[in-house]
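Hello again, I could really use a second opinion on something today. Take your time with it, there's no hurry, and the full record follows here:

___
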Amino acid sequence: MTGDEYQETAPERLKRIKVEIADAAKGAGRSASDVTLIAVSKTFDADAVEPVLAAGHRQFGENRVQEAERKWPGLRSKFPDVTLHLIGPLQSNKVKDAVALFDAIHTIDREKIARAVAAEVASQQRRLDLFVQVNTGEEAQKAGVFPREAKAFVDFCRNDLQLTIRGLMCIPPVEEEPSVHFAFLAKLAREAGLDALSMGMSGDFEAAIALGATHVRVGSAIFGHR
């Protein structure tokens, strides 16, 4: 078999990414254990995800509640210790389902959603790790609170709604240097008294780790291109 014919499997790519994360953490004077690798399995079916689960990975991210509902109950019956992260936009009519299914939501981005999540967390007696999404580039088409509103919104979620806000999340503008936005998010998190940062994807997770990322969201570098 030639090199051109060989393709890495998802578990092999996962192993390589974990080494790269450890190297990036070491270079930043951090421990690899400080960084949670969220394997983003959106658009991949259960058969594609199961080998990564079988390799021992347990942190996964999905963009859509509906897709996760189709995929994960069956997988969780085999791998009950999975931690599932919602990393895509949350619609108000899906909050009940999201709170029931996910262990963490990275996209709390407006008062209406925060209130709905608070009501469901109380109703279902669940405790989720929550991240406030910040629109660091102030892009009109992108979700997230604007940076100048971030601290006040975090305070509202914590104090008024009694939500467990772990940290902040961002998706930098595609045409801009991501490190600038990662450093900005870290600054906003410090101002809000938060220590968790959900930032960095397949193409830039090493830069995110250097700037303090505690959660990196890696999809194509593990599962391949969709």
Q: What stands out?
A: Strands lie at 36-40, 59-62, 83-86, 104-108, 129-133, 165-169, 196-198, 215-218.
